[in-house]
Amino acid sequence: MPRTMNRAALLVLADGRFPAGGHAHSGGAEEAITAGRVRDVADLREFCRGRLHTSGLVAAGLAAAAATGYDPLLLDEAADARTAAPALRRTSRRLGRQLLRAARATWPCAELDDLAATRPGGAHQSVVLGLTARGAGLLPVDAAYAAAYESISGPVAAAVRLLRLDPFDATAVLAHLAADIDHVAAQAAEAAQHVHTDGVAALPAASAPLLDLTAEQHATRPARLFAS
Fold this sequence. Notes:
Blueprint: H1 9-14, H2 29-34, H3 41-67, H4 72-81, H5 86-106, H6 110-118, H7 125-135, H8 140-162, H9 167-176, H10 178-192, H11 195-198, H12 209-219
Helix pairs in contact: 3-4, 3-7, 3-8, 3-9, 3-10, 4-7, 5-7, 7-8, 8-9, 8-10
């Protein structure tokens, strides 16, 4: 595919209004709030910090690797291995399927078409995100930034509704974590540089057991506002 630079596409991809289905998911925030672990802005900030440096880092690494042109099917298997909770695997593939639909309409390319054909049930969101970034003319570090930001912007947006937070305070949480996003994106992009020689073992594999457990609990709740 032609590799033209289009950094402004990052703004479109990271925009919460991009129709990728993320608005229906809380990234674990709903269950954390229901359980009383997140009660205010300070709690939300620490919840997001932990999520960013674990599942966010993993997603950023996978996205950056996909943006380098590494085999997306191998990355999809790596994402599966790094996602312990069945509920989170289902959610990731559901979001990946929705993102792939939006990406193929926005930045059509053969690589996205091939992934849709080989993973009709949906590839993992992070892999689709990286391949989308590649199709949009973005760099691997851009894909890492998009994944890192998405890992906390969803929970923050959900917390505004769930905790009735002042949107100004919620936005301040994202701003407060800007340096952490920079660090995670840089770490993920650096790891992705080695994937072609060292394979998927070069990518981050941080775990967040509490997020895994609460995802399974949330999936069994009969009444919930968000899908995950």
